[in-house]
Task: structure prediction
Amino acid sequence: MAAPERMSKRNMNRQENETRILAAAEKVFAEAGFGGATMQLIADMAGLPKANLHYYFATKEELYRKVVRQIFEIWLHAADSFDNAPGPIEGIGAYIDAKMEISRRHPCGSKVWASEVMHGAPVIQDYLETTLREWTSGREKLIQRWIDEGKMAPIDPKHLLYMLWATTQHYADFGHQIETLNGGKALSEKQWKAAKDSVKSIILRGIGAL
Result:
C-alpha cells in the first residue's frame, strides 16, 4: 500500500474511533453525569480498550469538554439560517425547525448540556462566559433589528431566546415524558412535523410576526 493510502486509511480509522468515543461519551455523560461517568464505562460503551480512549483524550474532563463543545457547535450551525434571514418568520421559523431536529437526533448531547448548567457549569463556565455570551449578544442585536423594522412586537430579545431554547430542547431533555404521554412510543415523523408546526405557530404569533 502506498504511503498516501496508508495515511488516508489511518486518518479514517482515527476519525471513526473518535466518532465512536464521542457517541459513547455523550450517552454515558447523559446517563451518569460528569461525576458518575468513568473512562472505563465510556470505553465499554464504545467497544474499545480503555487505553485507546486515553490515546485520543488524555483525561475525562478533556473528553467531556469535547462532547459539550460538539453539541454547542451543532446548535451554532442551526442558527445559520437565523442569521441570514430577512425577518423573524423565516429566521426564527427555520431556527425552531433546526433546534427541534437536533433534539430529535442528539438527545443525549442536549441532556449533557442541561445537566452541566443545572449544576452551576463547574466544567464549562468559561465557555458560557465567552462563546455563549458572544453568540447570544449577536442574536439579541438581530432580533432587536427586526423589532426596530416593525417586523415583530417589542419584546426583550434575551427572553425570546430563553423561550426558544427551553421549548425546543424540552423534546430532548424530557423525551421520556413525551413518549409516556404518547402511549409509550417515540413521536412519529408525522408527529414531529406537527410539533414543529405548532411550536412555530405559537411563538411566531406570540411575538406578532404572523
